[in-house]
Design a protein that fits this description.
By secondary structure, the protein is an alpha/beta fold. It has helices at residues 57-75, 162-170, 197-217, 233-247, 264-274, 280-295, 309-316, 323-328, 334-337, 340-348, 353-360, 385-397, 412-429; strands at 45-54, 89-99, 111-121, 127-133, 175-179, 222-231, 254-258, 372-376, 402-406.
Length: 431
């Protein structure tokens, strides 16, 4: 049910707080305008609707516990996840204008629509904001704007990142703002722009701008505190967002990441050297397809992928397959996935188009504008701990205020579950 769409004739005043420097979407920034997105419409709100409501802290706890129970057999979560819920909250799915990548043959980025989640704690007074950047998703419905914990393969199918992160941050009294990214949620982009720093950042920046109209309509006031949190791929997105906000002269109070990839090239080469990560063929395929969409890095899939995968891999990543089904459609190692010639070139060829573009999308070659806390487990099976430390050193050498918080004994997903409540405590210490 659409709870709120504004008349184009009635412009709402912007909310107070950090967002004052963000774009409000040009001449058609009126809340709820359904006109097609144009080049100057970045951050224009198209519509929003309430998709979930948890009136009390007890109902938030029940929501979080339901998610944990759903995945318990697979991830073996410990009984003492250190999370506390103090407030209920309401969640709104937001549709807004942003821009795509500059694709081959194009002179500039084309306007497009995207979706995301804005959750508002049931707490009075000016509220701090957390921009949440999610990890890898291969399915359009596995989006943070989807509050469903379980369901069939349709728009109401389960969301992995969304429920627990929403509960942790909004339940702690933070306005939660999370982009789905391009290609996920209701985006019409045919495939997600995986590890493409510019569109990770633009989708978040433009949702932050659009959310100001949502919050104004709901009479919610933001204070000047803006935090960002990124998990896995979302760590990459969080630092891309930090860079974009710095250019927009928007202050970030603090950024936290967990299990983050900061240098996609180094991450990929490290995993190729290990070949024990079950999900590596999925990540590698996803990167190759997404980077070819954006950068045209190869000719035919048969130049890169062995058969039968050359004929099937693109279809697996149509954003309409379950994560496990994508894995099942791929071999167990990257050697079996790629042609021998391409595999050898990938390992040895620093100048190959794929590696050059991966390198261009690194986010650890600068000093973060805000204090950065890097949560990472030495036992992370998805993102090597040593690679995170290399990135930390790079950022510190550029003058960054970067702290490492090790989470020994936890795998990739369990370290995320530990890091979110810890980040809440750290964010509050920066007030």
């Amino acid at each position: 049910m659409i709870l709120a769409t504004a008349s184009p004739a009635r412009a709402e005043p912007p909310s107070a707080g950090f967002g004052a420097s963000l774009s409000e979407g040009g001449s058609t920034a009126s809340t709820g305008s359904h006109a097609p997105c144009r080049g100057d419409d970045r951050g224009r709100l198209i519509s929003f609707r309430k998709v979930a409501s948890y009136p009390t802290s007890a109902s938030v706890r029940a929501y979080f516990d339901e998610w944990v129970a759903f995945y318990q057999d697979f991830y073996q979560f410990p009984a003492d996840i250190p999370v506390k819920f103090s407030y209920g909250f309401d969640s709104y799915k937001v549709t807004y204008c942003t821009v795509d990548a500059v694709l081959p043959g194009q002179a500039k980025a084309q306007p497009t629509t995207a979706t995301g989640m804005v959750s508002v704690p049931r707490k009075k007074g000016p509220l701090p904001t957390v921009a949440y950047l999610h990890g890898t998703s291969v399915s359009f419905y596995d989006a943070v704007s989807n509050p469903s914990i379980f369901g069939g393969f349709n728009e109401s199918g389960e969301s992995f990142d969304g429920p627990p992160s929403n509960a942790v941050f909004a339940g702690a009294g933070f306005i939660y703002i999370a982009p789905d990214y391009l290609g996920i949620g209701d985006s019409t982009v045919p495939r997600h722009r995986y590890f493409h720093a510019a569109t990770e950042a633009s989708s978040a920046v433009d949702l932050l701008a659009a959310s100001r109209r949502v919050l104004a309509r709901k009479h919610v006031e933001q204070n000047d505190e803006l935090f960002t949190f990124g998990f896995s791929q979302g760590g990459h997105s969080a630092l891309a967002l930090d860079r974009a906000l710095q250019k927009a002269h928007v202050d970030v109070t603090g950024t936290a990441t967990v299990g983050a990839v900061f240098d996609p090239e180094r991450w990929l080469l490290a995993l190729l050297g290990i070949e024990t990560t079950d999900t590596l063929p999925l990540y590698l395929s996803y990167l190759l397809l997404a980077y070819d969409d954006v950068y045209d890095i190869y000719g035919q899939t048969s130049e890169v992928f062995r058969e039968p995968y050359a004929s099937t891999v693109s279809g697996l990543f149509d954003m309409r397959h379950f994560f496990d089904d994508v894995l099942a459609g791929l071999p167990s190692t990257s050697r079996d996935l790629l042609t021998p010639a391409y595999y050898a070139d990938l390992i040895a060829g620093r100048g190959t188009p794929f590696r050059v573009r991966l390198r261009e999308n690194a986010v650890d070659r600068r000093s973060p504008a805000a204090p950065l806390r890097v949560y990472h487990s030495p036992d992370d099976e998805e993102v090597p701990y040593e690679d995170a430390l290399v990135s930390v050193d790079r950022m510190r050498n550029q003058g960054g205020d970067v702290e490492v918080s090790p989470l020994p004994g936890f795998d990739h997903v369990n370290s995320w579950m530990q890091a979110m409540p810890s980040a809440v405590t750290w964010f509050r210490s920066l007030d």
